[in-house]
Amino acid sequence: MGIDTVLLAVGPMDTVRADDLADTVLEIAAPLEATVVIGHAFTAAEYEEFRDNLGFEDRAEDVDPDAVATRRSPVPTLEERLSEAGVETEVQGALGDVATEVVEMARAVDADRLVVGGRRRSPAEKAVLGSVSQEIILAAPCPVTYYRDLDVME
Q: Three-class SS of residue 43?
């Protein structure tokens, strides 16, 4: 089984680790000439919170998630970095429950590998607050590379 498509799932917290995520994806995708799909899933509440900053007037139910993802940080930075390295990229967005939408996106693009970032949390924090990364890892239809950033939100 080769790796033709890598899904890099990102969210707003990934802005601080965009370079590290790009390095991780390039290690996988560049030598194999794989396409990288940069996926950004967001909830309606998140969209409403940042829609004015992105210049959108539409309410969440009326937007094209791909158009929002293309403009939402860290996607433009990642897209530029990967393209400069000669890796073919595509951007996809999704609106809904983040973990569910990322897993569905992985299925839809037929991802051979999924890369997701996360931060260090105690077991108690995960139990109380949940962990989107953990939900994605457990439900992913393909192998997952988890980039754990120890410096974020400690």
A: coil
Global pTM reads 0.87
The CATH number of whichever domain residue 119 belongs to comes to 3.40.50.620
9-58 pLDDT tens trace: 998 888 888 999 999 999 999 999 999 999 999 888 887 777 667 776 76
Domain count for the chain, please give it: 1
What type of residue is 145? Answer: T
Does some domain include residue 154?
no
Within 10 A of 60 (CB to CB), how many other CB atoms are there? Answer: 18
Structural domain harbouring 118: 5-149
| Residues ≥6 apart with Cβ < 8 Å to 7 | 36, 37, 39, 102, 105, 106, 109, 111, 113, 114, 115
Q: 124 lies in a domain?
A: yes
Contact 28, 35 (CB under 8 A): no
Alpha helices in 41-147 (DSSP H): 44-54, 65-71, 75-84, 98-108, 123-129, 132-139
What one-character DSSP code corresponds to residue 151?
Answer: S
